Amino acid sequence: MADLDPGRRKFLSRLLAGLGVLAALEAAWITVSTLGSRRRATEAEDGGVIEAGPVGRFPPRSVTPFPESEFYLVRLEDGGFLALHRKCTHLGCSVPWRADEERFACPCHASAFDIRGAVLSSPAPRPLDLLAVEVVGGIVHVDTSKRIRRSSFDPAQVVDGGADS
Ligand code: FES
Q: pTM, whole model, 2 decimals?
């Protein structure tokens, strides 16, 4: 740069400074993007409270899958809610809902569960696990962070849906 005239030297200096600023901005953007995607991945893996939707979105006697969070939101005939973890309590296979048979039927060893997750046929040793449900302001929330084991169905497990919104 020693041979360059002062105008050209000034131009090249500014160009280099500008490229340095661009490189710094890009590095910052990459850092922020990486941290953001890690946080999203952690939330998905660790679970947390998710907003399933307004009460009125779930008709009585319906089973709505939430595949990414591995549960079914069940609305019973009386309007109450249960969130059932979709893993079989025998050896953990994913259990699909068979609407035509009105039961959850495990494809691995033929266990079956009713709409409340209660065992209809073994070898499953206990009902499908529950996730905590809370209805706040007409919106159904499900806590996917921990499964609740139970030995049988109890009406106290059902969460009142209140009035449809
Ligand atoms: S894993 Fe479901 S019956 Fe065995």
A: 0.72
